[in-house]
Amino acid sequence: MEPRRLLFLVASTREPGHVGNTEWLARRAAERLPADAAQTWTHLAGLTLPPFVDQRHTVGTYDAPVGDAAALLAATLACTELVFVSPVYWYSIPSPLKVYLDHWSAWMRVPGVDFKAKMATKSLALITTSGDREKAQPMIDSVRLCGEFLGMRWTGALWGRGGAPGAVEQDAEATAGAESFLWERGP
After folding, report:
1. Structural domain for 77, as ranges
2. Residue at 186 is within a domain
3. What is the CATH classification number for the domain harbouring 136?
4. What pLDDT sits at residue 29?
């Protein structure tokens, strides 16, 4: 069996150096991973991704990405499991994650990348926090559908009560759920 390689994409727009509720919950879950599972943590807000320009119906293809976009594509293709670490912002995903997902449309059309077929071999999970579980559902559904579009295996969402800093640490159900959330969820 192929070794597990998890890419954690942190979508929060918190100031650098501040671990929010969602990242705290994700790191709690990651602590329980087997020792041989490789972990890469990337804060999307710290990257410079160009705005996505939709040229699917005009040019039809895209040039290979450069800079941070190229590094992010390489990390995405190298992982076996993709974990979005994303708080709920206005019932949806934060803008850094949205820009990343928009680039999937380009990466599917970069000659020689075969992005969609390679993504179909991976799993996708979401770790999120918000003030209310019901209000997180539209975002959870959106992430699941994005993965399904590429044929990825959806391994579920871990939700915790967010809000003020440290709020999720008082959420016993989320903390307990983190203990096993990533343990056996590989591709």
Report:
1. 5-178
2. no
3. 3.40.50.360
4. 97
Per-residue pLDDT of the chain (187 residues; tens, 9 = 90+): 789 999 999 999 887 778 899 999 999 999 999 999 999 999 999 999 999 999 989 998 999 999 999 999 999 999 999 999 999 999 999 999 999 999 999 999 999 999 999 999 999 999 999 999 999 999 999 999 999 999 999 999 999 999 888 999 999 999 999 999 997 655 5
Q: Is 100 exposed, middle or buried (0-12, 13-18, 19+ CB in 10 A)?
A: buried
Total domain count, the chain: 1
Q: DSSP code of 44? A: G
Q: Which two tokens stand for residue 157?
A: 């969402």
pLDDT at 28: 97
With respect to residue 184, please indicate whether it lies within any of the assigned structural domains. Answer: no
Residue 48 region by backbone torsions, left for phi larger than 0, else alpha for psi between -120 and 50, else beta = beta
Tokens representing 126? 């979401």
- Cα separation, 33 vs 180, in Å, equals 8
Burial 149-173 (b: 16+ CB within 10 A, else e): ebebbbbebbbbbbeeeebbeebee
Q: Where are the alpha helices (DSSP H) in the chain?
A: 21-30, 67-78, 95-107, 115-119, 133-149, 172-178
60: left (phi over 0), alpha (psi -120 to 50) or beta: left
